[in-house]
Structures are given as structure tokens and as C-alpha cells.
Amino acid sequence: MKMFQRIGVSAVIVSTFLGIGDNVNIVTADSIEQQSKLGIEQETDKQIIVKFSADLKLPYEDGIEKQIQSETNDKVLEDFLGEYPDVTFTRLFTSVSPEEIQDLEVKAPNNVSTSLLNYYILQTKNDGREETLVDKLKASSLIEDVYMKKQEKIITPEVKQLSVSLNPNNNPRFNKQGYLEAAPYGINAPFAWGVQGGNGNDVTFVDMEYGWLLNHEDLVHQNIELMSGRNIDQHVGHGTSVLGIVSSEDNEVGNIGVAPHRYQA
């Protein structure tokens, strides 16, 4: 949340909130799932990332070795796949379909020539030969870049069913709140509502600016307090929007907030 400092009169809104829910959406962001399906030992420390040339028109799918061998005349890649028949290329980006990635790239404000569809992971057994594989791939004219990426060990958060649930679909504008959706479109608020510690318990939200419509239908019951200063009616559009994104009530009108349930302090 941006903090706005202004010359003149300002006010501070405080809202202690609790976001609760039982809808869980899990999005796969890398190719661990492909490793399991292909029977490959999972490498938890390193990944070999390969960026193919844009001139190489490959389908964005897992296991493109046959296409590389049949549709290219690159002796480096041909010899590489012959020397290491156990390796396979899998997609780096798996959370959305290739068609959705293309659509996002077209809509990007500064459309660049590099496409996410050129990035793959070279899946290989954990046998200490990663640097050798990287060096060999660098010799191919069809590969723009290849590098080793050290993977972070991510601890999966505990997800549990909470006693009080949200009903986001009861809010008429919920399906238009793209920022609540899973990545790459939003922050995946429904998932956070079901994560232990992700409900905003004991967290205080402060909006430092001025201009709120506190009797708005989605804010009037949310126990929002004016801490200092005074409210300026001429600027209610921005302040009300900020509070609405975070704190809109889970009711049957308007939006639902990122953290719509909170303590009534």
C-alpha cells in the first residue's frame, strides 16, 4: 500500500482486520510436477535453465528432444542428445497455458521480442555433471542463454479449513476483481484465506492520506476509525478505493476485500 505524504491537512485511517476463508487454489510455478511424471529424480539444489533462440519454433511442451533432432540441423544439440539420452527439456513456466502466455505478451505495454515460451528446464539426474552440461549447451547457435539456477527450498505453508468461511461469489463484483485471482493475474487471495497465519490476525492496517466515504455500503460495518486529522470530502474517490481493496465487507453488494473479516475493535 502506498503511503502518501501531503502538505496541508492529512488524516489516518486504522483498520485491524482478519481475512478468513476455505477456498484453496494452488498454482504450479515450476516443473517439479513434470519431474515426477517423467520419473526423474528431483534436483532440489540446482536447475539448468535454457533459453532457445526465437528463430527455433518449438512447441511449448515437455519432452521436445525429438522435435529438436528432426527439425534442426544443429550438430551441437544432436551430439548432446546422443551423448546424454537420459536428459529431457520441460517447460519453465507451467502455471498458465502457452496460449495465455502469448496473450499476456501481446497485451504487455512495452511488448519485447523475448518470449517466455523460449525458456525450458533441462531435467537431469543429480549426479554432479551440471556444469559440464551447461558448457556443452553454450556451444549451440540455437541457444541464446543457458545458466544454472540455485533453487530456494520452499516450505509449503500449512493449509487448514477455518471455522468461519467467506462467500466471495455472493459479492456481485467478485468475478471482476482480477487482482484477487491466482498468479499471474493477481495475489491469489482465496488461497491466502485458507493458510495458517495468512488471515491477518493481529495485523493493523493504516491508510495514511485523506478522503474516505466511510458510509459506503462495503465499508460502513467494517469498524474503520479516523485516528487523527479530518476527512476531506473532495478526495473520497481515492481513499475509498484503497480501503475497499483491502477491507470491503463480505456481503451481497459490491466487492469483497483482501481481508474482509476483522476484529471489531
From TrEMBL:
One of its GO terms (molecular function) is serine-type endopeptidase activity. Transmembrane segments: none annotated. It comes from the Bacteria. GO terms for biological process: proteolysis. Belongs to the peptidase S8 family. This is Peptidase. It comes from Bacillus toyonensis.
